[in-house]
């Protein structure tokens, strides 16, 4: 049996998507991002931004620009998503109608929904997206949700449980701002973002909700764009201390440090391949490997390592290629 059949019986099979989500909000930055994705391959996603990362006042034309890029031949890997306006914004439905079209519906990687305040808000947004997507032959268009309000954090487990949701992202700046000065601005960046109790609580709740439902927790931005060491350290701490398997990028210089920090090590990939190959030969029964016992509980962990390696564009030993 394939590991996806035998290892996840009665459990949520985890979503596997690239570990880096790069945001671009202007035409110049969108085109640069597309060119870089063509160079590196589909090892990172691009989110074309119609909301906070885009200029205000020209929303309809901007949405048409986003749709044209998604539909173009430059979108070579179909790993381009879009962040639309929130459900209370006058352009919410206009964004959906303009961007989710016959030319784009099947090519969009996902739609990001910002500033929700409850699970009911997410359901309403998904329903609106589905009405338009189904007109053009796309069912279950993946949805990513920004958790950046008190209400969204309160409902985070219910939001993560929605079948169409595949990723939750932490919007740290909006979240800190929503405390109106009670949480200092230093908590928007390191080291405060990893030490302030209210911020770390939010990060842990989001990660826990995602992992309980087989979804992807995406860590917030690093505002430092010149020092790649800061980005790498933030990504390493997000993964190692908080369980995040994906992270935002807001500058092309941040992409490679995030990829390196969140992708498994080559030694981990080799070990995972060896363990799963031996487990497969014994029909997924318990084995000994280097003097240690392994069974289906640990096999799920090593299968996830291979999935992350694949999503990051890393080579996987030929012996384990059939497991992906």
Structure notes:
The chain is globular. Strands 1-2-3-4-5-6-7-8 form an 8-stranded parallel barrel, surrounded by 5 helices. It has a two-stranded antiparallel ribbon with strand order 9-10. Helix 3 packs parallel to helix 4, helix 10 runs parallel beside helix 11 (252-262) and helix 12 crosses helix 13. It has helices at residues 3-6, 27-40, 59-71, 92-99, 119-135, 150-154, 156-160, 172-177, 197-212, 228-242, 252-262, 266-281, 296-311; strands spanning 20-24, 45-49, 80-83, 108-113, 143-147, 165-170, 216-219, 246-249, 287-289, 292-294. It is an alpha/beta fold.
Fraction of helical residues: 40-55%
User: How many beta strands in the DSSP annotation?
Assistant: 10
User: Which value, in Å, is the CA radius of gyration?
Assistant: 20 Å
Approximate shape:
globular
Q: Hey, roughly how much beta strand do the residues contain? A: 5-15%
- Report strand order across the widest sheet: 1-2-3-4-5-6-7-8
Point out poorly predicted stretches.
Answer: none
Structural class: alpha/beta
Mean pLDDT: 95
Largest sheet: 8 strands, parallel, barrel
Helix count, DSSP H or I runs of 4 or more residues: 13
Order of helix and strand elements from N to C terminus? HEHEHEHEHEHHEHHEHEHHEEH
- End-to-end span in angstroms? 13 Å
Q: How are the SSEs ordered, and which strands pair?
A:
Layout: H1 3-6, E1 20-24, H2 27-40, E2 45-49, H3 59-71, E3 80-83, H4 92-99, E4 108-113, H5 119-135, E5 143-147, H6 150-154, H7 156-160, E6 165-170, H8 172-177, H9 197-212, E7 216-219, H10 228-242, E8 246-249, H11 252-262, H12 266-281, E9 287-289, E10 292-294, H13 296-311
Parallel strand pairs: 1-2, 1-8, 2-3, 3-4, 4-5, 5-6, 6-7, 7-8
Antiparallel strand pairs: 9-10
Helix pairs in contact: 3-4, 10-11, 12-13
